[in-house]
Amino acid sequence: MKTNISNDMKRYNHLLKELDTVYHEMSLKLGLSDSAMIILYTICENGDSCLLQEICHQSGISKQTINSAIRKLEAEGIVRLEAADAKKKKVYLTQRGIELAESTAFKIIEAENDVFASWQKDDVEKYLALTEKFLSDLKERGKDI
Asked: What is the DSSP letter of 46?
């Protein structure tokens, strides 16, 4: 079977994989699994708590993987779960979780912010706009697959 992947798409795929590798290496360096880092990061992005379904949605990771990682973090006293309503659960950082997030997820957030701060505002906007356009266009084409 022969595929016809353009050089631009190969380059794009390579960059995405490299980006994932950078985040993976930062997580390991900070002593966390990718799943644990994603959970802490997502909670930090949303304040001090986040709906469990939002963590799954924003991360793109399966509910089963997120639930497994949350159970481990809960056992370690990093997060606690509370019912948000009859069907939804909310994940909160404990005091220990806040301290861990400050020494891990917030370091990554700070590095990301530093990168964008070092770019010209127009370049940041162009990068984000083109990424949004690619995502939107790909979603639209994905409907026909």
From this structure: T
